[in-house]
Amino acid sequence: xxxxxxxxxxxxxxxxxxxxxxxxxxxxxxxxxxxxxxxxxxxxxxxxxxxxxxxxxxxxxxxxxxxxxxxxxxxxxxxxxxxxxxxxxxxxxxxxxxxxxxxxxxxxxxxxxxxxxxxxxxxxxxxxxxxxxxxxxxxxxxxxxxxxxxxxxxxxxxxxxxxxxxxxxxxxxxxxxxxxxxxxxxxxxxxxxxxxxxxxxxxxxxxxxxxxxxxxxxxxxxxxxxxxxxxxxxxxxxxxxxxxxxxxxxxxxxxxxxxxxxxxxxxxxxxxxxxxxxxxxxxxxxxxxxxxxxxxxxxxxxxxxxxxxxxxxxxxxxxxxxxxxxxxxxxxxxxxxxxxxxxxxxxxxxxxxxxxxxxxxxxxxxxxxxxxxxxxxxxxxxxxxxxxxxxxxxxxxxxxxxxxxxxxxxxxxxxxxxxxxxxxxxxxxxxxxxxxxxxxxxxxxxxxxxxxxxxxxxxxxxxxxxx
Length: 467
Ligand SMILES: [Zn+2]
What we know:
About 30% of the residues lie in helices and about 20% in strands. The protein is of the alpha/beta class.
């Protein structure tokens, strides 16, 4: 049975509640681009799917970047002149400028203000701010609270450490019959932020659970990595292997009530771009396809020109366009179980299309074959010539070796599953032959100028060249 049909037999309410419960478990953890928050998060994911952890030492070069010192934090507060904790890390980890250097000091309000970050346009929310690659410390708090601070001396404490350590990321690899891979990447570096972080990683975990133990065509690699530096580090360490990636998806911001947005890969015409557009067209919520831009999430790294991998990005609301983005309002109420479940469904549908999208050859291409004598001119639902017969004719006519089932789906306007079932039936009837997957690596020898490209990525060239 198709993955999607099976998914649709499950209770979406229960799926959504499970996803949301997992997000709620991870919500209190103070994550950053390095440190124990990422390790704790990966340990929680590892209770559901097998995650291989990689620790990369601080100071390791990754292309133009360097793995930073590791940041950990135990406590932080501001005490008012009366000695009362008015800003308390224990109440929200967003109160601390992420990656703050340690500090213990007493200073007047006028000095303290230089280290305070607020959001005047949403005066009751705590902003999320970071100080990666800077030596800085600070606190984030609601603007109204800052305005209410009385003059006097304040005691500040940030009990953090910033030392040589490691950058940590996790991988879950699910083998399929081919070594060719589908990459699903999600960042795990934001603290208590639900949509921008937890929605992506909980849905990715659930998708990995759903694919585990199945007969799959592709192998699946799920990456749980710190944004930017994590993806860059992973790419630097896997430069020779990225040629296996046939399709890829960055998952983020998929728990909010906004409609779907799919940002195309840099290539713009990758199979995953075509598949995502198809899947979104055949679901009920609003959706939009965005062209690639060099700003956003980790697709920026996968689609950097040296790699140019076929990796798109699935979101609901686009980063920076919703007021809750990077604030304390991106909380567990902002992501809803039903939206998370529907996002997991889209991912399942996308995988279903990728798994089944093949090219075939019509073995009887001279005029239409006589379907009747093969019992193929009947719909399985009765004798009416309908969509199923139509689908068989479309598949026969366009299975010339060039068109994939997805191409035929687009041309015919018929659902992918109907086209796929027609192809299976025609194969059984001896009218259609499956064309073997051409591994992009196998074509590298044909590319005389392959050596002028970045080594280890012949396949990446192959896809671009052929389609
Ligand atoms: Zn973010």
